[in-house]
Amino acid sequence: MTPSREAKSLIKATLDRLIAERAALEEQLQLEAELAQQDWLVIEACKDYDTIELDDHITGKLHRKQFKALRDKKRNLEKMIEALHALQETAQAPEGEKLLKKLENEREKYQL
After folding, report:
1. What angle do CA 60, 62, 67 make, to 5 degrees?
2. Who contacts 103 (Cβ-Cβ below 8 Å, separation ≥6)?
3. With helix as H, strand as E and coil as C, how does the chain read?
4. What is the mean pLDDT of residues 63-86?
5. How far apart are CA 83 and CA 78, in angstroms?
6. Is the CB of residue 74 less than 8 Å from the CB of residue 65?
7. pTM score, two decimals?
8. Which of 33, 21, 2, 4 is nearest to 94 (CA)?
9. Are 71 and 29 in contact (CB under 8 A)?
């Protein structure tokens, strides 16, 4: 496999992996959003009742925090995907030779 084709293949594999991670994050985001809304409903329903003790993970807004963390992670992944698309275009352009040399230097570091 030529270095150019190898670089393109590696970029595509990385893109595929990040896109799969983004899809998994979207599923987790949906679940956390639903759980956060359910927690809010419990808090809202119970706020006027002094005798109801709510679990700490509900009143601590655990699911809301997890949702925000996942959302930030997804945004970061989307930026990485954009950057890899730009790198893919660079690899296909004439200035891609510089990228190929950098890739070869990096590969040498991981030779056994």
Report:
1. 140
2. 3, 6, 7, 10
3. CCHHHHHHHHHHHHHHHHHHHHHHHHHHHHHHHHHHHHHHHHHHHHCCCCCCCCCHHHHCCHHHHHHHHHHHHHHHHHHHHHHHHHHHHHHHCCCHHHHHHHHHHHHHHCCC
4. 92
5. 9
6. no
7. 0.73
8. 4
9. yes
